Amino acid sequence: MKTTIKHGAILIGLPVMLATMAPGLPGLAAAPSASPNIERPSILQAQDTQHSHDVVNLPADTRQDGSFTRAQPRAALRGPLASEPRAYNNGGLTREVFGFATYWNLAAGDLSDMQYDKVSTIAYFGLTYTAPGTFDAGDGGATGWNSAALTDVVNRAHAAGDRVVVTVKTFNKSTIGSIINNPQNGQAAIDSAIAAVTSRGLDGVNVDFEGGDGTQQQAFTAWIASLSQQLHQRRPGSFLTVDSYSGSASWNDGFIRVDTMAPHVDAFFIMAYDMGLSNDPLGTLPNAPLAGPYTYQDTESVDQYIDKAGDRGKVILGVPYYGYKFSTTSRGFHAGLNTAAPGCYNACADPYSVIRDEFTCAPDLQLNWDAASSTPWASWFSPASNDPCGGNRNSLRELYYDDASSLSAKYDMVNNRDIRGVGIWALGYDHGFTDLWDAIANRLSCPPAPAYHANALAATQSSTKFTVSWAANAGSAAASLVRVWVRDGSGPWLKWVDAGGGGRSFYGFAGHAYSFYVQALGPCHSAPPPGTPQATTMIAANAGKANAYTGLYTLDGWGHVHGVQSPPLETTAYWPGWDIARSLSTQANGQGGYVLDGYGGVHAYGAANPTVQLSAYWSGWDIARDVATLSDGSGGYVLDGYGGVHPFATGGHAMPPGVPDSSHTYWQGWDIARKLVVFPDGSGGYTLDGYGGVHPFATAGHAMPAGASNRSHAYWQDWDIARSLVLVPGTLSGYVLDGWGGVHPFAPTGGTMPRAVADSSHAYWHGWDIANGLVLAPGSNASNPAGWTVDGWGGVHQFGAAPAVTVDAYWSGWDIARGISGQ
User: Fold this and answer.
1) What number of other Cβ atoms are within 10 A of residue 12's Cβ?
2) Which residues are registered as beta bridge partners of 483?
3) Rounded average pLDDT over 587-610
4) pLDDT digits (tens, 9 = 90+) for 792-819
5) Which residue, 429, 434, 450, 572, has most beta carbons within 10 Å?
6) Are 366 and 378 a contacting pair, CB within 8 Å?
7) What is the separation of C-alpha 623 from the centre of its chain, rounded to a whole number of angstroms?
């Protein structure tokens, strides 16, 4: 009679497994050492061995002309996610959900309630290689391959937009060597795999080679590279995955070397289970801990794969739909083994459906949760006779497994790490239950997204400010948030604002044409903007200016420039997650400028010329502090932390004159310089130190300007609190900003001091170093100073006669705004 996993536990061969298990113990959180124990046989191999002699009673598919009669191609993706990068199937999955469909579950009928909308790739497991590179026609996998039942699975999957791939496998070191070291056999194995994909109209190959060692690493990688090249050439769009051990990315000396193989595969399937057996082969521990004090656990394994693969989109975290049952000497977590108990006392694997069934009969059942690993575990007593579950073990029993809660925690980590997705060993192990499918729906899939549109606009606008409104399409659900995109002329689509409500004021440039597109946000997003806009308009060349300035912008530490009642501008440099942007400077026309990174790189935004020639750059050294542009747009100057002033040129212009360190104040080895301003004629300027000192400099060929005595303005000896420096237009006087928000006038020797700005007249944060930038409003003068300061959270605050403004970017509680600039 055939045996199936549905009706009995899986006994992992104890003598064989203990010889290869890792000796790691709980509490050893360091990365695994370079030793063969991290690549021990997986449960895939163990269960395939157990079922290799099953009698698989499945009717064969009737073939005509060598084809499977009912095989249908994969349906094109459709619906609101079809144009999204992560449209994995037609069920709205936002991550890959890769599941193995084994021949024994196919034979048992356990795939009959599979929810095809919640899986994106089904791997038929599988076809077994022989040494010459052909497939074994006599095992259960071959019978299932030729069955009408598999054809039905393929057709149902393809109708749902799912991929179906075939697992090609061998668990024999000698067979592996014969394939990867013999060119003739290796090519035969590749031909066999591609022929199998072609005959069934499938979508790719999954490779499961286990039993090899580090001596075969280079040959295996080379064979995978050859398989990848030929598969993608002969079957364009195919999906190639390799099954790999949870510890493979922790070292470079095993059978699978992740970094060298990564360029050749579409994804790695991490067999991230059986980790309890590796963390302690002689005790009871969680099968797949999310985290915790373990040598082997999901979070560290994923991080190692991200690092070695170099591409989060190539990482799939395998999760177990089964658990391990033990006979134990006590009832506590991590109990010792009761080796006197009859039958399977260690490493007895039960599928999830059997676990759920057993919970209905287990005497004195206690269900527990281990917070450290984010996994459940259970304990009960099995009597020597009349056990309601039929075990009759005369022993305490413990079970370590995964359920919807623990899998949801893993899926949250997958989302947070932004890897490709998750994988299941194995589909059908939850037959008869729906809660594990619900976990996928709740964490990894989306309902249809709302659809919105921008309302029509007048063909021409008479002001640089006008209202853009939007609404849901007829029959669409409402969205709590929408993202409005804008395009200036034929330029790129840029994110303008994430907003609720039905409209927002837009500020543009006179003489520019704008297009708009509205995208609905939420658990699922509607499509981002295509080439066709939803609404268009033109601002007349003689349109009235809504603001005194043309453009006003703030900068965040990642390099993104944000409009303050100003149109979005394209940036040429952006470093998500890296706080390396230091300053920005807007050109005279207000429609572009330059961002400075900490190494001294100068990057254009908006209409500024992107060609920049530097005279100084400090690769790997965060020492650049400020950038200032010349009024004619030909270049500007960069300030380093020691006080050095370095010219740069743009657009093929000649390099501006240099500024020798000897011509101005310079603090060798002391990172104390904070800001600089350049005179409109380029003859010199001022630098600001952290104490508030204002120091003149002259460019080559020009006379030194008058200095500003520290006694003539605010100065904080030995206190690094000065943050910004500006000049009053048409003068050599100006203002200094302190970190609390105070605005303080200064004047050169012999000059007239500008009017003071009282702290009570504007935003001021006494005792809190949070002010990060200062800009004067156009028309501001020494008698009537007006302008804006920016705080570290991105808030923009007016002083003097400057009007209050609204910001489109604000980071509450996060000191990430790096400056403000405008014209």
Assistant:
1) 22
2) 498, 519
3) 95
4) 999 999 999 999 999 988 999 999 999 9
5) 429
6) yes
7) 29
Q: What is the pTM of this model?
A: 0.60
What are 470's two structure tokens?
A: 């939007």
For residue range 512-567, list pLDDT tens digits in order.
Answer: 999 999 998 766 667 678 778 999 999 999 999 999 999 999 999 999 999 999 99
Rounded Cα distance, 524 and 483, in Å: 13
Q: What backbone phi and psi angles, to 5 degrees, belong to 562? A: -120, 130
User: Residue 435 has which token pair?
Assistant: 């809660």
For the chain, what's the residue count? 823
Beta strand 96-102 with 421-425 is: parallel
Look up residue 370 and give its two tokens.
């281990």
Average pLDDT over residues 726-735: 92
Six token digits for residue 540? 């007349």
Q: At what angle do helices 404-417 and 435-444 cross, to 10 degrees?
A: 20
d(CA 400, CA 378): 7
CA distances from 739 to 73, 154, 463, 790, 791 (A): 64, 65, 37, 11, 9
Q: State the residue for tokens 């005509």.
A: 64
Q: Kind and range of the H or E element at 581?
A: strand 581-586
Contact criterion met (CB below 8 Å) for 374 and 400: no
Residue 213: CB atoms within 10 A of its CB come to 13
Q: What's the token pair of residue 262?
A: 């990564």
The amino acid occupying position 50 is Q
Instruction: Indicate the pairing of strand 624-629 with strand 635-640.
Output: antiparallel
| Token code pair at residue 18 | 């203990």
d(CA 304, CA 190): 29
Structure tokens at 256: 């699978």
Q: Alpha-carbon distance 140 to 132, whole Å?
A: 20
